[in-house]
Amino acid sequence: MRELLDGWGTTPTVVDSVVAARMALDKTREGRPFDVVIIDAAMNGRSGVTLAQDVIRHGPGRPGVVLLVTAECSISDMHSSRDLGAAHYLIKPVKATE
Fold first, then answer.
1. If you average pLDDT over residues 57-77, what whole number do you get?
2. What is the pLDDT of residue 63?
3. Which of 95, 94, 77, 74 is nearest to 86 (CA)?
4. Which residues pair with residue 90 across a beta bridge?
5. pLDDT bucket at 80, cuts 50 / 70 / 90
6. Greatest C-alpha distance within the chain
7. Cα 23 from Cα 21, distance rounded (Å)
8. Which residues pair with 43 in a beta bridge?
9. Which of 46, 48, 63, 85 has its CA 20 to 30 A from that of 23?
10. Of 67, 65, 70, 63, residue with least CA distance to 26
11. Cis peptide before 60 (omega within 30 of 0)
């Protein structure tokens, strides 16, 4: 994912756990929120879906767009992600055309 984002000329903040994601998001309280937050549904430490729900509903520094990424293709998960406010639900491996 990082290579894909780098290839688009973005400057991503990449973390490897829910705790690290929460810390990065907390820093946005003092500055500009992220334009896009991409969350793996199966993150270390806690459900990425729960993290996405927290980010969308409670901030901090609510991002413009939240995307969920998962290895599973489930219609119910896709609907659940939309219901909680995620803009898109992407299936791994994510391709540049998606």
1. 74
2. 63
3. 77
4. 69
5. confident
6. 37
7. 5
8. 46
9. 85
10. 63
11. yes
